[in-house]
Amino acid sequence: MDIRARLHEDIAARREDLIALTQDLIRIPTLNPPGANYREICDYLDRRLLRAGFHTELIRAEGAIGDSDKHPRWNIVARREGKAPGQCVHFNSHIDVVEVGHGWTTDPFGGEVKEGRIYGRGACDMKGGLAASIIAAEAFIATCPDYAGAIEISGTADEESGGFGGVAYLAEQGYFERVQHVIIPEPLNKDRICLGHRGVWWAEVETKGEIAHGSMPFLGDCAVRHMGAVVAEMEDSLFPALARKRTEMPVVPEGARQSTLNINSIHGGEPEQEEDYTGMPSACVPDRCRMVIDRRFLIEEDIDEVQAEIRAVLERVRDGRPGFDYELKELFRVLPTMTERDAPVVGAVSRAVESVMGREADYVVSPGTYDQKHIDRIGRLKNCIAYGPGVLDLAHKPDEWVGIEDMMQSAEVMALALHELLGG
């Protein structure tokens, strides 16, 4: 029996284990923010991976953005050495999930199995991918016990909020210096290899006014109206200009092959009161209004140009609006990244996809950033891709799900890639 058939047979025997593992992970509500239950899920993974012969480390990202005694940023890194020296393949998955939101018809943390799918927040993004990588590693170890090199599996914090308490922290501590290949099982579809992502620039715009009694607004200056003028200028000039910018990067979906801007939030006037407050608001003209923007840019664009476009919008508003004043503050930036198609990990996964699915893999780029940015920029490791089960469009949506058969096939692809990269 050839290696592909042996791995297929072993993974098929682990089907129920894969389902149960995915359900267990979904049932730990690792919501971020605030960063809940990180230690609980790391302890669960620790027990699982110790049984499979891995050496494990639980690492708190002390001092990182988001880390606190109330919500510590815990990560796990597990490593299993082979029979001989060789290279290291690292599977990295984030353990955090976004807020539940409205519109669910299933229990978001129930892990319900229905018609070949497992439902729950994080099922697709990306606890299904984490489970598939564990099953892949365990099947490969059982089938090829004499492999050379090492296998690593990590579960890391805070990818949904930038990854600074997770992969960025590990990269800063040198954990990727011993790694040659990284596969991140993000949900980009089982027959796609994701080479990288667009860039992102988050910024905060604050418009300024003057507080006054709400019955005499002419004695004050409304910062919210000033912000309205900013939004109007964006609608008139910036959004059309961004829609005309196109990239050669194979970004999916099609709409993300242009530059985009999302207005993430606008806050002006009095702060929101506690839910149990039953009084009325006070009558005041707002003297401050803040807007957070999320600008996604292309590999063909320069970060200085991206910033200059926003400042130009604000200056045009200033020129035409008496009393207008603003502050612009950068929150964070990530430059675009894209691994070369001839990189070793790309070739290994590509050949595995073709072997398992009988068709060539598609090469794509993610519309949003993920933890490849830190492995690339801080870890200095270019040989990194995202590959995993799940439909990208389901991420962060109600009734999120991952297909069981998709996880099975993705696990087989990962196991075959391990065989090519590590032998055995």
From TrEMBL:
Pfam families: M20_dimer, Peptidase_M20
Segments crossing the lipid bilayer: none
Record domain Peptidase M20 dimerisation: where: 196-316
Swiss-Prot/TrEMBL keywords: Cobalt, Hydrolase, Metal-binding, Zinc
Record flagged with keyword Ubl conjugation: no
Family classification: Belongs to the peptidase M20A family.
InterPro entries for the chain: ArgE/DapE, Bact_exopeptidase_dim_dom, Peptidase_M20, Peptidase_M20_dimer, Peptidase_M20A
GO terms of molecular function: hydrolase activity; metal ion binding
Name the UniProt record assigns to this protein: Acetylornithine deacetylase/succinyl-diaminopimelate desuccinylase family protein
Organism from which the protein derives: Roseovarius bejariae
Swiss-Prot/TrEMBL cofactor(s): Co(2+); Zn(2+)
